[in-house]
Amino acid sequence: MSPDKRYDCIIIGGGHNGLVCAAYLARAGQRVLVLERLGGTGGAAVTDEIAPGYRVSTASYLVSLLLPQVERELELARHGYRVLGRNPSSFTPLPDGRHLLLGPDHAFNHEQIARFSRRDAEAYPRYEAWLTRVAECIEPLLEEPPADLLPLPADWRRRSLWQRLRELRRGNGLYRALRGMGAELPQSVELVVGAARPILDRWFESEALKATLATDAVIGTHAPISAPGTGYVLLHHVMGVAGGARGVWGYVEGGMGALSQAIARSAQSSGVEIRLNAEVAEILVEQGRAAGVRLKSGEVLRAARLASNATARVTFEQLLPQTAPLPQPFREAVARIDYASASMKINLAVSELPDFSCLPGKAEVGPQHRGTIHISPTLEYLERAYDDAKYGHPSRQPVLELTIPTSVDRTLAPPGHHIVQMFVQYAPYQLAPELGGWDAIGNDFADRCIDAATLYAPNFRASVLHRQVLTPLDLERRFGLTGGNIFQGSMALHQLFSLRPVPGWGDYRTPLPGLYLCGAAAHPGGGVSGAPGRNCAREMLRDG
Predict the structure, then answer these.
(1) 44-48, 150-154, 244-248, 459-463: the lowest-pLDDT one
(2) Which residues sit opposite 35 in a β-bridge?
(3) What order do you get walking across the sheet with 464-470 strand by strand?
(4) CB 135, CB 239: distance < 8 Å
């Protein structure tokens, strides 16, 4: 960089939110630099080649939550972004030889569920309609900073009269959202703050249906379906329309990396500079505010403002010097952030499709191959899987979500071969000491997961040609996800809305002037939505 060249903003981390933030700032005329420590952009939304000709969505693997505004305003379709829908969207094989398929077609769902319970078949459309109404009330709250109405002491954060008035306006938005739920408000509040299991038990009687729905309540969490807060994760998975319809998660053609590349191209077309293999060692603080960064190479880059796409723990405890002027209560709050994680990702290249005993067929793609395949037949199965993790052990009978993107995207594997992506619960980041750590047991647990799928598709294990195993420790080391938490922090109620990342700082600003958070560490949290990046950019522009 020439000595006289300065940036208006430096983005730390080239994950999808960092790229979104950069794109919006540049479109407003800002000079923006994105620094990415790895050799490619995208963060956890990337595509890897695990063997010649076999490409996988390495970590994130489906899309639905991406804000329509981001897709439209950044012209992502023009830059190569394309979503491939899935129909059916869900397949649950059962040990007794039966199966359950679900998708966007109401008549099809009624016929499928009625084979287990006519009562449930009648209730399911009402359940979906209720979730839709709640989601439509909440989604606008995700598109701007959350209302912060907590009576925090002045030494925690001082607010001007104008800022307090703006919080009241946002509070009115929250009130309108709650009022929009009408007579359903009590049960809707339970959905947001309560446990998934009693809600599902109240609506349905079929174990197959409840177990299929319940897996969405625990994905990415270190909690059982009976724990408060899992209801919101359940709701979280029916938000968004990027898959073509509400809650129908789709594949990105070319893998999730194609989405990140589209955002990067959009950002670059607006003038954003992206530097790869540029790891930030330290955030510089001068005269009580953020002033730039020092790279691991020793190079110093300066900017009027910084936005961190890293976790709060990395940002405030690793990148900021201990001498940075952060209030002690803020430091203590950051140290208390819950990063408990129990997720693992296994990506497989296979020579043929899984041939399920309950719905045979491997010569051609069938309905059982297109959507998410749930290996979790009962609620009790889910509960017992968590019981192991509670004591620091990977589940003896793991909960699996399998997806086969090559069922609709033939660009990812050679002809006749396929990619299987396996998302696993529960794989606790904190293992019992006697297990020796994830580097010691990761491959053995991956074998256990493959065996669990083979119980339902006997040809599965023999079909595996190549594999990529990402333990919670690998997710932390590669993607900078503290504790291996895919959401950059638990999505429990005490870490949502104005409480994220910590109480009083939910508007993307931080106690250090000039430093912002633009990633999933901030509101509204995890998922490939682009909302934190877009919201952060708008607040930075508001600050001038």
Answers:
(1) 244-248
(2) 12, 275
(3) 99-102, 90-93, 372-375, 399-403, 418-425, 343-350, 464-470
(4) yes
Strands (E), 370-486: 372-375, 399-403, 418-425, 464-470
Alpha carbon 242 to chain centroid, angstroms: 14
Q: How far is CA 449 from CA 191, 378, 398, 506, in A?
A: 31, 17, 6, 38
- CA nearest neighbour of 485 among 427, 407, 398, 408: 427
Angle, helices 379-390/196-203, rounded to nearest 10 degrees: 170
The pLDDT tens digits of the residues spanning 410-431 come to 999 999 999 999 999 999 999 9
Q: For the chain, how many helices (H) and strands (E)?
A: 18, 18
Gap between the Cα atoms of 286 and 536, Å rounded: 23
Only one residue has tokens 């919670």, namely: 472
CA–chain centroid gap for 322, Å, is: 30
**Quick check: 55 and 65 in contact, CB under 8 A?**
no
Strands 343-350 and 464-470: antiparallel
- Which residues are within 8 A (CB) of 129 and not within 5 positions of it... i.e. 6 or more apart? none
Q: Is the pTM of this model over 0.90?
A: yes
CA distance 499 to 495: 5
